[in-house]
Amino acid sequence: MKRTGRTLMFLFMAFGVYSCFFPASVFAAESANSWRETYDPIMKWVNFGILLFVILKYAGPPLANFLRSQGREIERDLARIEQEKNDVMDQLQTAQQFLDESEVRIAELKERILEEGRKRRQDIIQQADEESQLMMDSVTQRAQGYFQEAKIQLQHELLDEAMNRALEILPNVMTSDDRQKMVNDYVSQLYVGGKTF
Q1: What are the pLDDT digits (tens) for 126-138?
Q2: Distance (Å, rounded) from C-alpha 182 to C-alpha 197?
Q3: What does pLDDT average to over the chain?
Q4: C-beta separation of 41 from 30 below 8 A
Q5: CB distance 47 to 71 below 8 Å
Q6: How far apart are CA 70 and CA 76, in angstroms?
Q7: SS3 label, residue 31
Q8: Each residue of 10-26: pLDDT tens digit?
Q9: Cα(197)–Cα(186) distance, rounded to whole angstroms?
Q10: 7, 39, 58, 90, 134 from 54: Cα distances, Å
Q11: What DSSP assignment string belongs to the chain?
Q12: What is the distance between the alpha carbons of residues 12 and 52, in angstroms, rounded to a whole number?
């Protein structure tokens, strides 16, 4: 039923538009009568009035309802789109806030890592200094030990050499009185020290 009404309405509208723009083809052939010249514009207005009445009567409420429903649908779409826009803006704001917080956390983490690196480097340098000092002390002690051993060995060698030279030279230079004096000095030292054999 609605489809027939729409089709009929469309036909009336098409006929009205056609008769307004092409009046000669709507009516029968014109003659030169004067009454026809007056009759044609009046009939055009009457036809237009009838068409307007039919459109307003039958097509007006459905057309108004259609336009209202389209308006409500557009309003719903706009409200939905606005809500989606607000949701997206909220998500964008949340993401931006998260990004800002992440940048702050990354900066703090970077600073903490750098500080730990500086501290670790300082610890390594200090440990290396301590180890090098221990190594230097150890090398110094070893060198002193080698030097002390070499000194003692040199003293022994010098003493042996001096003894050998003395044994070579003294028998020729020492007299029997010198020998007796040495024995007496030795014996007296033994009694002074409180030792007796």
Answers
A1: 998 888 888 888 8
A2: 18
A3: 81
A4: no
A5: no
A6: 10
A7: coil
A8: 666 666 666 666 555 44
A9: 13
A10: 13, 22, 6, 52, 115
A11: -HHHHHHHHHHHHHHHHHHHH-HHHHSSPP-S-HHHHHHHHHHHHHHHHHHHHHIIIIIHHHHHHHHHHHHHHHHHHHHHHHHHHHHHHHHHHHHHHHHHHHHHHHHHHHHHHHHHHHHHHHHHHHHHHHHHHHHHHHHHHHHHHHHHHHHHHHHHHHHHHHHHHHHHHHHHH--HHHHHHHHHHHHHHHHHTT---
A12: 9
47: CB partners within 8 A, 6+ apart? 16, 19
User: In this predicted structure, what is the pLDDT of residue 7?
Assistant: 66
Rg (CA), the chain: 66
Structure tokens, 108: 């703090």
Q: Where are the domains of the chain?
A: 2-95
Residue whose structure tokens are 């890592």 = 113
Is residue 72 within 8 A of residue 47, CB to CB? The reply is no
The model's pTM? 0.35
